[in-house]
Amino acid sequence: MASIEMKHIVKQYGDGYPAVNDVSLDIADGEFMILVGPSGCGKSTLLRMIVGLEDITSGDMIIGGKRVNDLAPRERNLSMVFQNYALYPHMTVFENIAFPLRLSKTPDDEVRRRVNEASDVLELKEHLERKPANLSGGQRQRVAMGRAIVRQAEAFLFDEPLSNLDAKLRGQMRTEISRLQRRLGITTVYVTHDQTEAMTLGDRVCVLRKGKIQQVASPRELYEQP
Ligand code: ADP
Ligand code: ADP
C-alpha cells in the first residue's frame, strides 16, 4: 500500500491547451479517491501518468514517498483495471489471475498459493477452471481485480471499469468494488463520469475541469453543498 502525491502535475500534448494543468493532489495510504469530470477534462491522462503509461511534462509524481517520474510502469507496482478487463479468452480464470506472476517467473507453488488466496477473497474459487467467455460481467471484473491482488500492488487504478455494463450489474459491481476496497484497504484511484459512482464509492471526490482541479471533497460535503 502506498500514498500517491501529485505536485504541480502538467501534461501538454503538442502545443494546445494542457490536458492536465497544474494538478496537486495527495491521496492517503488506503484512501479511495474518485476522479470525476466531463469528457476531455484530463481524467484518463492523469490516471495514465500515475501508472506511468504517459510521460509527465512537469511536476512530481510521488508514490509511497518515492519520486516515480522516471520509472517504467512495471517498476511502479500499481495495478490498472481496464474497462474491458483485458482478460485472455483462451486462458482459464486461474491462469488469467496468475498471469502477472508467470511474467515475473514466480515459482509454481507460490503462484498456486497466491491465486487461491485471491480467489478466496473474490469468491471465484468454483470458477478457476472456467474461461472468461463462460463468466458473468461481474465475475470477469473480479478476475481482473484478482490480477491486481496477486501482485500485491501498492494501489488499484480504475478507468471507468463499469461503463460497459448494464444498470443492474453496475449497481452490483459498485457494491462489490466498494466492499473489496474496504476489505483490502488498498489505495484506489477511480476514474468515472458517473455521478452515482462518484457519490457512493469514494472517500473523497476530486472534480476536474479543463485539466484543473475544481474541488476536492467528501461525497457528503459535495451532497450538502448549496
Ligand atoms: P478524459 O479522460 O477526462 O475524457 P483525457 O485525459 O482522455 O480526458 O483527455 C484530456 C485532453 O487531452 C482531451 O482534450 C484529449 O483530446 C487530449 N488528449 C488525450 N490523449 C491525447 C493524446 N494521446 N494526444 C493528444 N491529445 C490527447
Ligand atoms: P477515453 O474516453 O476512455 O479517455 P478517448 O477516446 O478519449 O478514450 O481516447 C482513446 C485514446 O486516444 C487514448 O489513448 C488517448 O490518449 C487518445 N487520444 C485522445 N484524444 C486524442 C487526441 N486529441 N489526439 C491524439 N490521441 C488522442
From TrEMBL:
One of its GO terms (cellular component) is ATP-binding cassette (ABC) transporter complex, substrate-binding subunit-containing. The keyword Endoplasmic reticulum does not apply. Residues 4-226 form the ABC transporter domain. GO terms for molecular function: ABC-type transporter activity; ATP binding; ATP hydrolysis activity. One of its GO terms (biological process) is carbohydrate transport. It comes from the Bacteria. Keywords: ATP-binding, Cell membrane, Membrane, Nucleotide-binding, Translocase, Transport. This is Carbohydrate ABC transporter ATP-binding protein, CUT1 family. Transmembrane segments: none annotated.
